Amino acid sequence: MQRPRTAAYRPPQVPSVDQVAAEERAARLASRSIKKDAKVEGLKRLIAMLDLTTLEGADTPGKVKSLCQKARTPDPDRDYPSVGAVCVYPPMVPVAREQVAGTDINVASVASYFPSGQAALDERVEEVERVRDAGADEIDVVINRNAFLSGEYGRVHREISALAEASGDAHLKVILETGELETYDAVRLASRIAMDAGADFIKTSTGKVKPAATMPVTLVMLEAIRDFYRETGRKVGMKPAGGIREAKPALRYLVLVKETLGDDWLTPERFRIGASSLLNDLLLQLEKERQGRYHSKRYLSLG
To answer: 22-49+107-271, superfamily in CATH?
Structure first.
């Protein structure tokens, strides 16, 4: 996979974000009503866009196997799509790889000393290489927020570039940890640096810091992707993650994507949502649309 490289990097001038306008536009788009057939289509599409995630210290091979089974067959009684990917810690990559063999489900793993990123670059690169060699299709890495907030933008770019090179053919999803970046202008700039450095996706959050994904932050990142595409012709994906647990707000993210980037991004190849519990609510809402009432939660697995 060929990614851009530069020997010396100076971030381009990026537009300043009008905070009030961004928040008003996000709120306006979030108010759109999606009903009936469009809602059912949206709910099914969201299943296919899920990165079904378990990132807990207590994760075991058995838990990952159960997660992968649910990823393959979200509802045994319905012809629903499988999820886009399962996302696990590095030691669990071989387990997940075996469980999803023969399917279109990707295996994603966090790396680069997730969630803090507080390690020497060579250590972070080595972890990315290990995860790549273990069979991960996608690698989620965190930016060096210390360097970014200190204004060391060239360093941030060099580090992401090194991680992109280490990822090889695996897709690199770069986590900005927007809850620590403080302003929309910082989110916009970090998005551009990550894309310039070779990110295949930009991602809001690790899910370990609050606030995580929000509609206005996601809008700012989507607009950065739009402008980057217009300038370079390269399509970068988007992944909000953290705190998206219910179908209704998840559908609002689809509206944001469609209105900002268009239908080309309404695919699992260009848009994902990172979540651990969202799938159950998507299934509950689909059952409600089908039968006019909610399915009992006791019939849904906890994974």
So the answer is: Aldolase class I (3.20.20.70)
